[in-house]
Amino acid sequence: MPDPQLLSPRHALSGSDRTLVDLVDRVLDRGCVIEGELWLTVAGIDLVYLGLKAVLTTPDRLLRGEA
Amino acid sequence: MIAVGLCRAEEAGEFDHVQTGPLALLWQPDGTDTDRLDRCLAAQEQLGAFLPFSPRQAPKLAAACDWIRPRIAALSAALDDLAGQGEMLVTLQPDTTGSGPPSSSGRDWLRERTLQHARLRAMQDCLRDLLPGAHLLPTSPGAPVEATVLLPPDLMHSHARTLHAACPEGVDCRVSGPWPAFGYAAALTARLTEPT
Amino acid sequence: MTAPDPTQDWPSPLAEISRLKIDPERVEQDMARLVLGLMEFLRKLMELQAVRRMDAGSLTPEEEERLGLTLMRAEEALHRLAAQFGLQPGDLSLDLGPLGRSV
Prior knowledge:
With 67 residues, chain A is α+β, with helices and mostly antiparallel strands.
């Protein structure tokens, strides 16, 4: 009998996402270099590779020279 | 042919596999990520101990064999660790479906969001208290909190009940399992792959 | 970070690379997803940072009102735009690989 409080993996597979923005926000706390990558696939063909490299920080840390 | 994971040679039975010492490397014909995930779930359900490769980055069979050969002792020990266990995955996030009427002022809206994030943090503390061995995946305020913990499947039901009971209003708690030990395996393969 | 070689035999555990597919049959929707996804990414970043400022108590009531109102409207606007292209809010999360989903 299925337990409504414990989803089986097969049932849960349509589940939640974890995305870049979440991680970026976490690193914003310190200011940090992040990298991400993504293929833009056009009509089934890998056309453009996007390598994202960014130094992210918040204004208060930038002003204090902590970036 | 793509490798999907490792088990003990004597348990491999009906799964397509090649034997490497005491280990069996399970494989399947080239397919999609979903096919491999499916095979991992079946292996987890049917085998006493299973060490999965991530379905989205599974190695080719030959490369996997080369990688395994010098690491047989460590991988056998890992299978002993995993015997009779699976991973339970806990996901906590703000429940926005039950939120009331739209905020009339910007301040109210921002306060509501701030409250959501505070509730989530509280639930995260609760999770840490209940399952000190849980591995919290990197996250941030406002993002879903995800944690994995290696457990015998029987225990997962009672932990799921406890977590749901402790979950405050405004937080959506999802508990799922038993998963193949993807988290454990990722940490292990990273450790064993580091250049020495 | 590992070189972007999708054909390598044994990628490092973090080397998976996602694909954003632009399909000839649904160019408008796919392009909208790319652009709106980037906008949603920045909007969430701003919201989360605003919450952090709230927690720190570093905002005046007027700033709270202005910031909240702007973020609230930005969210509404973005969701409205997405709906025009037949996209749900959930369609706007771009999966950028190593920092994205774990399984």
